[in-house]
């Protein structure tokens, strides 16, 4: 009887250890994507006051551009301060390019370009990622968050009304890639 009880305890402990190991491995694998999602969410919800930005009520202080691909979403974040980052929905990215003049200029230009398009955007209460093949722009002002979306092919053609904003966002990507060491 004691042997049966010991075997049952061993089986239960073995299952518990395997379950814990599996959940720990899953948490470790998802952690980078959760970190990037958290940074994206912070960019979408932080106030201009918290950033120390003194823009007027309707003047943009941040632009978030999501580019949807079949395997992931690339998010480009730029602030009026010149800070810029790229986040990958699968985890990883390039953070905080504000220390480089070329990145600062591209980030400021991206935010400035968005100011020409805010009247053509809708108010946003939710912040879903762009679907594959689409680009979604979120523009942050002290009055709230605005959103617009277009197919990437149309934006890249240069013929869409939001093409200048897309091109400015691509400029941020380029400058961040240039300062990132090759692996």
Protein described:
By secondary structure, the protein is an alpha+beta fold. It has five helices and seven strands, in the order ααββββαβββαα. Strands 4-3-2-1-6-7-5 form a seven-stranded antiparallel sheet, with helices on both faces. Strand 2 and strand 3 form a beta hairpin. The N terminus is likely disordered.
Give the SSE layout.
Elements: H1 2-45, H2 48-51, E1 62-68, E2 73-79, E3 84-88, E4 93-94, H3 101-114, E5 122-123, E6 134-141, E7 144-151, H4 152-157, H5 163-179
Antiparallel strand pairs: 1-2, 1-6, 2-3, 3-4, 5-7, 6-7
Structure, briefly:
With 183 residues, the chain is α+β, with helices and mostly antiparallel strands. It is built from five helices and seven strands, in the order ααββββαβββαα. It has helices spanning 2-45, 48-51, 101-114, 152-157, 163-179, and strands spanning 62-68, 73-79, 84-88, 93-94, 122-123, 134-141, 144-151.
What does the radius of gyration come to?
22 Å
Number of helices: 5
Low-confidence stretches: 1-30
What kind of sheet is the major sheet? 7 strands, antiparallel
- Average pLDDT taken over every residue: 81
Number of strands: 7
Question: How would you sum up the global shape?
Answer: globular
Give the strand order, joined by hyphens, for the main sheet: 4-3-2-1-6-7-5
Query: Which structural class fits the helix and strand makeup?
Result: alpha+beta
End-to-end distance: 60 Å
**Helical residues, percent:** 40-55%
Quote the beta fraction: 15-25%
**SSE string, helix = H, strand = E?**
HHEEEEHEEEHH
